[in-house]
Amino acid sequence: MKKFNIVFFLFGIFLSLFVITCKPSATHQTTTERTSKPKVKGEVVGSLVGLLDKATPPGEVTGKGDNVVPAGEQVNVDTLCPGEVLAPFPSPLPESELEERDKAYKQFSNNVARYTEQLANETKKFESLISQGKVQIITGSGDGGSDQKELLKTHFHKVSTEFINPALVQNIRASLGYDIQAIRRLEEIIDSLRLDEISVGGDQASKKVIRDQLLDLSYNLLFLLSQITLSAVRLTGEYLHESRLAKLARSKFTQKLVELNNHLNEFIQVREQFIEKIKKLILDVKIGDVQNMLTLLKNITDEKSDIVAAANFTERKATIIRCAVDNLRRVVDL
To answer: Residues 96-103: what's their mean pLDDT?
Structure first.
C-alpha cells in the first residue's frame, strides 16, 4: 500500500508538470495575435468605392417625422457650424420681409441649378469628344487611332483596382478641368513609376520598400484628385438636391439663405482656382528616375500642397453647406 501511494504521488507530479509545460502563455498569445493582424491598403484614407456608394449624406436624418423639432426648442448646428443656433420665429414674416426671403431663395436656388448644369455640361463636353472620335481612350497596350486623335492611355488601375471604377476616373479628370494635356501628363506620371517592374539599385527588400512607397503616394494623389470633384458631385446631387431645397422656400431665415448662397459661390470660385493651380502643377512635372519621382510625389501630396488644400477645402465647405441646409430644414415649419 505504501509502495502504491508513492507511485501515485510521483504520477501526480508528472501530470502537473506536463500540463504546465504544454499550456501556452498569455504573452505568447498576445504577441501572435498582434503580429498576425493583416494591414489593409488604404486604411487611412478609406475606400473610394465606398465613398461613391454612400447615397445618404453623413449625419442626415431620414424618415417621416424625424426632422420635427418641439416648439420652443433651439436646434444645434452640426459640428462644422460651431456655436450657431436657430430658434423658431414666434410669428409669420411681414410682407416686406417675405419679399426679401423670396428673393434670397430664388438667387440661391438659381445658383445651385446653374452650377449643377455647369458640372454636367463639362462632363458632356468631354464625353462628346470621345464619341466624336476626337479623343480616344486606350485601355490596352496598342496605340491605335490616327495622328489627328488625342490618345489617352489609362494607367490608374496599376495603382489600385479601385481606379477601374469609371466614376472615379471621371472625377479625377474633372479635377483637372477635363484638360486633355493635363490628363495625359498625369497618366504618364503614373506609367513612369513602373509599379509592376521597379528597377533600382539594392536588394529585393529595398526595392519592395520603394515600390510600396510609390504605391501609397500615387494612391493618395489619385484619391485627393477624385475627392475634389466628389465633393462637388455630392454637393449638387445630394446636399443641394431640389427635393431638399424646396422646403427652404418657406424658411424665415432670409440672412441664412444669403449666407448659403455666399458659401456656394466661395465653393465654386475656390474650387475652380485650385483646379487651375493643379493643372499647372501636373503639366510642369518633369518625369525622372524612381528616386526623383518618389521625392516629387511626396512634395505634391504633402499636407501643405495645393492638392491637399483643395481636397480639404471642398470637403469641408460642402459639409458646412449640408449642415446649414439641414438646420434650416428642421425649423422651417416652426
So the answer is: 90
In this predicted model, what pLDDT tens digit does every residue of 27-36 receive, in sequence order? 333 322 223 2
- Give the CATH class of 74-331: mainly alpha
Residue ranges of domains in the chain: 74-331
Buried residues in 63-89 as b, exposed as e (16+ CB within 10 A):
eeeebebeeeeebebbeebeeeebebe
Q: Where are the beta strands (DSSP E) in the chain?
A: 75-76, 85-86, 135-138, 150-153
DSSP state of 238: I
**Each residue of 6-39: pLDDT tens digit?**
444 544 544 454 444 444 433 333 322 223 222 2
Non-local (6+) Cβ contacts of 12 within 8 A are none
Identify the residue whose cell numbers are 446631387. 237
Q: How far is CA 44 from the centre of its chain?
A: 12
Strands 135-138 and 150-153: parallel
Report the distance separating Cα 74 and Cα 40, nearest Å: 43
* Backbone φ and ψ of 81, nearest 5°: -125, 65
Residue 88: what pLDDT? Answer: 63
